[in-house]
Structure prediction request, 108 residues.
Amino acid sequence: MPTNEFFSEHYAHARTKFLSAAQDAGAVMRAYEHPSQRGPDGERLSIDVGVIGPPDASRGLLLISGTHGVEGFAGSGGQVGFFRDSLYEALGESACAIVVHALLLDES
Prediction:
């Protein structure tokens, strides 16, 4: 996949790409749906987390996107690339990666 295809301009597309890439890489997935907030098109918003690597890892890498708004699309693309290009393999056998997509802060 060409690098420019890792990136999206809309939350729903970014989420779909992230979920597909993480699942294809074999990550264990969890989704945490926001209880009340909706996206610009009324779509449900979720914080998706993919964990790849051994469950008893002695070291971990935490990758987060989406904490401050529009830069979340750049972070999402980087996370998609992390999975699509198998960059997690560079961590070695004793480490895992926890990849948090579209971290949403509730400002209420």
In short: The chain has a mean pLDDT of 92. The CA atoms of residues 6 and 81 lie 6 Å apart.
